[in-house]
């Protein structure tokens, strides 16, 4: 049976989001169990090495090529916060690619829940010293980010990296109407810094 990349991403999104909605597990456990469930769907059993490699792979995931320069430029005028579904260790490993000193970092480990839980946003809002009217939530995932951020009255900007591609990638389908939309972080940063 041949499975396309888009089908695999959507299958992953289904399993990951179901696990994240349940009792809190570490992100390493989420990754491992997601792979086990995908393997069961496709009729194979991953080896211990494959499970271990996948569940420890976050530090190897590259940042989008435009992200670092955009964040460096934005940081000259704005405070930057991250609400991540990773844990503290994985965020630290991922941030080695960006090399950005964020003003606020809220991980799923700290919140003991995963986006789209409103809890993650409540934890972040409790740390950020600014009224909601001065916070702009910028993200790719409509499901994980825009739906909950808008439910809390935040303005949102969609980084629509899948424009022109079928499906929703590694996130479940969701309906939201962001306040603005850009193809990548560089275009967003340019627009913000021209204001």
From TrEMBL:
Q: Which InterPro entries match?
A: HAD-like_sf, HAD-SF_hydro_IA, HAD_2, HAD_sf, S-2-haloacid_dehalogenase
- Origin superkingdom: Bacteria
Q: Which SUPFAM superfamilies match?
A: HAD-like
Kindly give the Gene3D superfamilies that the UniProt entry links to this protein.
HAD superfamily/HAD-like
Q: Which Pfam families match?
A: HAD_2 (PF13419)
Q: List the keywords (alphabetical).
A: Hydrolase
Query: Would you tell me the protein name for this molecule?
Result: Haloacid dehalogenase
The organism named in the record is Cupriavidus pinatubonensis
């Amino acid at each position: 049976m041949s499975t396309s990349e888009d089908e695999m991403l959507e299958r992953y999104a289904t399993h990951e989001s179901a696990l994240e909605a349940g009792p809190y597990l570490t992100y390493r456990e989420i990754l491992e169990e997601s792979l086990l469930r995908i393997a069961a769907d496709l009729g194979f059993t991953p080896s211990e090495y494959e499970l271990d490699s996948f569940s420890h792979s976050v530090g190897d995931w590259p940042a989008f090529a435009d992200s670092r320069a955009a964040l460096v430029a934005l940081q000259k005028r704005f405070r930057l916060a991250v609400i991540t579904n990773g844990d503290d260790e994985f965020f630290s490993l991922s941030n080695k690619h960006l090399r950005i000193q964020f003003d606020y970092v809220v991980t799923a480990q700290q919140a003991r829940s995963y986006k789209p839980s409103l809890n993650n946003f409540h934890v972040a809002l409790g740390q950020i010293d600014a009224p909601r009217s001065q916070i702009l939530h910028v993200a790719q995932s409509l499901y994980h980010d825009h739906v909950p951020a808008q439910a809390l009255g935040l303005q949102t900007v969609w980084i629509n990296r899948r424009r022109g591609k079928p499906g929703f990638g590694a996130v479940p389908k969701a309906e939201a109407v962001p306040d603005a939309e850009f193809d990548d972080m560089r275009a967003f940063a340019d627009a913000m810094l021209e204001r």
